[in-house]
Structures are given as C-alpha cells and as structure tokens.
Amino acid sequence: MPFRMTEMVGCDFPLFAFSHCRDVVAAVSRAGGFGVIGAVSYTPEQLEHELAWIDDHVDGKPYGVDVLIPEVQAVDKGVTADEIIANIPAKYRDFTRSILREAGIGEDTAEPQGGSQRPNTSLGQELLEVSFNHPVRLIANALGTAPPEMIAAGKKHGIPVAALVGAKEHAMKQIDAGVDIIVAQGGEGGGHCGDVATVVLIPEVLQAIEDAGADIPVLAAGGIMNGRQMAGMMAMGAAGVWCGSVWLATTEAETHEVFREKMVAATSRDTVRSKYRTGKYSRQLRSGWHARWEEAGLPALPMPLMSVLSEPVLRALDKAAVNGNRQAQELCSYWVGQGVGLVREVTSSGQVVQQFKEDFLAGYENLSQAFE
Amino acid sequence: MPFRMTEMVGCDFPLFAFSHCRDVVAAVSRAGGFGVIGAVSYTPEQLEHELAWIDDHVDGKPYGVDVLIPEVQAVDKGVTADEIIANIPAKYRDFTRSILREAGIGEDTAEPQGGSQRPNTSLGQELLEVSFNHPVRLIANALGTAPPEMIAAGKKHGIPVAALVGAKEHAMKQIDAGVDIIVAQGGEGGGHCGDVATVVLIPEVLQAIEDAGADIPVLAAGGIMNGRQMAGMMAMGAAGVWCGSVWLATTEAETHEVFREKMVAATSRDTVRSKYRTGKYSRQLRSGWHARWEEAGLPALPMPLMSVLSEPVLRALDKAAVNGNRQAQELCSYWVGQGVGLVREVTSSGQVVQQFKEDFLAGYENLSQAFE
C-alpha cells in the first residue's frame, strides 16, 4: 500500500481538504483526495442536511467531519447567546457600528444574534452522533485535546479520530488522549494557530511521537498550497497534508469573488495573526478591518464575545463588497494562511487536486535527481 | 552531475554552514558540505588571519565568505564609533548597568567600545579584497541588496555571489541586481529575519525567479536542522540548504557550554523575534534578557546603537554564565532559530554533516515509498 492514509481513511491520495463548504468536500473526495467538512456553527439538523447532500454528491468516496469548534469550547455550560451578547461592552458595539456607518452600510443591519439560540452544552456530542449516521471515515477535533467521549465514540464506530495541534506540547497531550492521527499545523497557516513554523513543527511532533513509543501518523498543515510542498512534507516524514487556504480560491468555495481576487493579488506578507476576529490568535488576510481595530486601540474581546460581535459585521461587509462598495472591499477579510502568496488563479477544487498530483510527482523527481 | 551546487561551488553535498567560527567552517567543508565564514565584526587583518587558518585546515575543500554585515550597512559614512556611542541615551546605559549590577557583575566591565575604531565606510569592499586573495568559492551578502561592486567583483574573479532574502520582494531586487544564488530564509530562522515562513517563502521565491525568466538556484534557510528537512526542501525545488543554528550546538562552535545546554533543553517555542539585540528584528533564544527589556518598557534603540550598547553586556553575561553565575545563565542568549527545538545533543560539526547525509537518504526513501 503506497500511502498509509489510504489504509486508514480510504482515499487514493493523502491530500486532506478542510472546508466549511460541502461542494469543496465532495469535489476533493471525488478527485481522489479527502474532504473534511468543518461543522462550525452548524446545528445538528444543519449538519444532517449537509452530510446528506455530501452523501448524494461524493460518488461513494470517503470524507470526514471536523466537529468541535473553538466558540463551542469557549462557552461556559448553560450560557445562552443572549447572555453572551449582554457581556459585549457598549463602546465595542459603538465601534463596529461606526465601521459600518463610515462604509455607508446600515449600522443596525449587523447586530449580534441572540434570541432563540439554545445553550451549547452538548452540541459537540450531538454533532458527533449525526456524523456517525453517515459513512464518515474521519472525525477531527479542531481545537484543544480530543475529549475521551470522542475517542471512545471513534473506537466504537471504528472511525479514526484526528486532532489539530500547533505545538509539540499539545501533540504530547493528544498522544496521551489516544488520537489516531495528528494534524500538525504551523503558525503560517490560516485560522487559529500557534507560532511554530511548519518546517520545524513536523519533525518536532514526529520526534515526540517516537519518544512516546507511539505510532501515530502526522498530517502536515500550514502554508501547504501545492504538490511540491506536499512531497517535501512527506520526505520529512508526514503521512500526508491537510490544507485549508488553497480551497478558498476555488470556484466551489464559500468565499466571494472579491475576496478571491484579493487572494490572487496577495503576497505571503499580506496576512496577519490577529485576535481581532475570534478573540484568539488566528491568521487572516490583512485588511482595513485590522487597521481600524489597531487604530482604535481597543484590545480584542475574549472568545466567544469577539466572534459574536464581529462575525455579523464582517458578513455585512462581505455582502456590501460583492455589491461594489469600495470601502467594504477594502475592509473585508477572511481566514487565510501565508500560502495565499502562492495563489495564482481561481480554479475548481477538482483541478487543484489534479494539479497537486502532478506537482507531487514533480517534487519526487526534483529529489530523485540527487540520486541519479 | 547530481547536485547543481557541486557544479557551482565545488562541494559534494549542498549543505551550507553559516558560522562565525572558522573551526565549524573547515570541519563542514572537510566533511563534504560547504562552510561559509561570517565575517561580522572582522577587520580586514582579522579576516586575513581567519582565512589563512581555514586554508590550512580545510584540506583543499571549498568554502565561502559572508562579507556584508547589518551593522556596517546601518552606519552612516564617516561616522566613528565614539560618535555612535555618544548617541546612546543615558537611561539605556543606566538600564544595562542595572542588569549587570543585579547579576553581581561589575557594571563598568561592559561599556560600549569606542576609541581607535575607524569609520566603516569601505570595510565591506576591503573584506571582499581580502577574500579574493584566498581560494574562496562563494561570496555571500547577508543583508540588503548585493551592491553592484560586489556583483562586479564576483564576475571578475569567477566566484558566485549569494544574497540572503526574507521575502519575495527582496528576491526580485536581488534577481535584478544579478546575484548568482539566492538564500531564502524564513522567519523561523535565527538572526535577522522577516516573518514569512520557509515552507511558503521557498516556492514563492522560486516562482518569482521563474516569472522573471531567470535561472538562479535557491538555497532554503530557516528552521533546517536535519537531512529529512533538507530532502523536503529539495523536493520543493531548492538546490540545497543553508543552516546556521544547527552548528551552534557543536563542539567547534563559538557558543559556550551553558548556551549549548540551553539549546538542548529548548523547544521551538523558546525563541523570540526581538529588536532587543541589534535594533532590528532578529530571532534569538528567549531569556531573562528579553523579559527585562520588556518589563523596563524601553523601546529598542535603532541599529547600530542597540548592538553597540548590548553586545558588551551580553558578552559579560556569557562570561559570568560560564563561571557559574546563575543569574547570568538565566539572562544569556544568542541568535538561534525555532529549529533549536530539534537539537537533542551537542556533537561535532563533522558528525552533523554525516547525519545530514544519512537523513537526506532517509527523506528520499520516505517519499519513494509513495511510488512503490
């Protein structure tokens, strides 16, 4: 068996696609990679709907679900959305309203969402149960140590559990927790990340696994945008790669065309690791959004307050950006890693997988030359 | 020819060792790698002496010289050391004296060095001339765009000129300047660095070279500590690797045993990209030195003032650390990259090269498995 991941999760090519978009997940799996749907902000009913759609569009190919989300973890048990909203200081709400007003957008169109939303206590567990009613081949845990009930559920259903880590110390906790696959993401990656770079983190985590006498495959994440890098990571000992940003510049993605154009134009220096979206450090495309917050001198709110405040505003900016609002185009942003500097064009997810395969072979040939 | 660098600079194995220590340079070249002596702070007479020593100890193997140094570039033409010292604010000198006093070290033993030191105007050019009187096979330019006189001198002597870059934009300037080799160093590397990670920077620079219609080999730097990573970088398209930190944990290095022990104990999260040494961002082992400056709330002085103030103090701390002073051991630091987390033991430079060769083969085998 050429790839260990083929054995564990059934994909032909160990290219994992993390995406919030079901179209990307299905397209990647169909093309031979492995799509993982990020179930962030889904209710169990919504997840059921998404997974049913994927089942109908994935041609029987394997896929996975990423079920635990930072916001959920950060919410105390039994706290309602209305209670969270009540904790946002007035000057922060005034500030985000001023951003919208100055961009000519109705400032009351993007208020934090409260109302009927129920407490999140058992959401992760419910999402897991929904997932196991579908032919998922991988469960991933996005932040923090995989909880014992997740490990137990994975074992019961015979489905590997993967966990994301950004530092060797976190990997050691995941090894102890009993995860089956570790996704080691360097600080150059998009979204929540640490500050250890991928090229150091991968060998450091592999060494920690060896030192623990464990045998857990590692997927390399953070900055990986093409098959040559994938070949490089696998030469270093990774069992495959886990990518997020590269799918955002595809025609299937949840991103809008203005953001995709910003991705094509960006270099690797156009991202920022900032707390001004979720309250924890996450890497995003640098935009007027970050500049405005820095100028205002307001420290980021803790998680989950910061997301509850900022997400409706950022979605309003996205909408206005698509409708041609120049200020909104300048302000809009999204999570993306430094690999954005390698994006040359917007293409389809299937074509990205195909190009990865060709470049993976080219990477192998680059190295083979040394032995000719 | 298996390696392009063999053709260009005559080494068997494209592992470049940047070191301020002649012993490391000679040992690496003898073992089949390529040593590059960092001529930082050397006078032409000192460089002549070092190169003569290397010639006597390198067994005819090729080596190179890194001649331009940040401090030199930052000094205005004709400014003397005494004039530089006069610009250091009194409260900064009081602060560094207080660090020494509290560590029980004579506070007047580490004053900025002035006196007979002459202006640095033409130092780089003089160092170049000294170098060309020796059988050097590479001239490297550590910071900023390689000046036309360096390119011209390289061409005249038939010696390739390499330049370090930390961003695609800098690489484009070096391509225009006509350098022969680009060393692309990610922000995880030790010393002066940008913030783009190696795994993104290498493909981004390779793409910029291709877009420019140029044919310039790229050496990958930043976080590279072993042969598996080297194989990974070469799969990505690099022509070899350029390492600094890995040599600091060798028996030949200029580092002292206390610092080497700190390297072995450190993880990748124990470095900091800080201005509190040279005045520009450089990555160092995080120590009490950085904590003290951060607590004091004094912004770093500009280059070269910061180095002129801090280097004598840091050398006094090194000396006291070696003599068993606990506070000095806690305060001492040196430039090192995140790769410090991969250092497991102190060994010889020759053994490091040998281990790189074995791991390079292992990296190739890791990747080959995918094609079996």
UniProtKB/TrEMBL annotation, chains A, B:
GO MF, one example: nitronate monooxygenase activity
Lineage, top ranks: Bacteria, Pseudomonadati, Pseudomonadota, Alphaproteobacteria, Sphingomonadales
Membrane keyword on record: no
Keywords per UniProt: Dioxygenase, Flavoprotein, FMN, Oxidoreductase
InterPro entries cross-referenced by the UniProt entry: Aldolase_TIM (IPR013785), NMO (IPR004136)
Flavoprotein in keyword set: yes
Ranges in coiled-coil conformation: none
Name of one Pfam family that matches: NMO
Annotated source species: Altererythrobacter xiamenensis
Name of the protein in its database record: NAD(P)H-dependent flavin oxidoreductase YrpB, nitropropane dioxygenase family
